[in-house]
Amino acid sequence: MKKLWFIPIILVLLLFGCQQKQNGALDTSKLEKVEETGDATEEQLKSIPITYNVPSLKEGLKALPFEVTPPEDLPFEAMPLKMTIEDFSHDGKELRVNFDSVSKKKDESIILMITVHNFKVEYAESLGQEVQLSDGIVGYYNGTLTFEKDGLYYNIGYTNQNISAEQIKEDTIDMANQML
Question: How many domains in the chain?
């Protein structure tokens, strides 16, 4: 009986850990804040998003108050995805997550950029061609692919001079389906 005192402590710690995700705010404890440089005033800095570098993709994804699944099977020999997070509201609640990668081959001009917002954004690309994604999601393609699922707004931009425009479109749709 005496050894049961630690059970309430473990429960409290578990609840606190779960609360971090449930409170809808970014967990910055393991992120590196990028300090703004220049001559911006304190008032001007309030309107500039706070940017965070992440130590690893795994840590960055854990820090988010929502679930994002980046694509794992990229259509080119890619450098590992880099991730940054921007906090527009300065309270960890209105976020833009940026993923990017380039070709491992220095002589290839291949670029992948993915952004995910947890607040409504209007992309000019949403005027593009309607495309059907998995899970019944409709996206819009106009050189980049935009779509929305469960309150998250996605934009995938992919350039690769080694393949046709049609193949770029197919590859982009495939990456989007990996994220759903």
Answer: 1
Q: Give residue 84's Cα distance to chain centre.
A: 8
How far apart (Å, rounded) are the C-alpha atoms in residues 27 and 47? 21
**What's the pLDDT tens digit per position in 108-139?**
999 999 999 999 987 665 578 999 999 999 99
In a domain, 88, yes or no: yes
Distance CA 141, CA 157 (A): 10
Give residue 179's Cα distance to chain centre: 10
Q: Do the beta carbons of residue 72 and residue 38 sit within 8 Å? A: no
The mean pLDDT value for 53-73 works out to: 97
- Domain residues for the domain of 90 are 28-179
Classify residue 148: in a domain, yes or no.
Answer: yes
Provide φ and ψ at 20, rounded to 5°. -55, -45
What is the value of pTM for the model shown? 0.84
Q: In this structure, is residue 3 part of a structural domain?
A: no
Beta strands in 70-109 (DSSP E): 82-87, 95-102
Q: H helices of 23-133, where?
A: 42-45, 57-63
At residue 131's C-alpha, the angle toward residues 130 and 132, to 5°, is 130
- The residue assigned the tokens 């393949």 is 163
Neighbour count for residue 158 (Cβ, 10 Å):
22
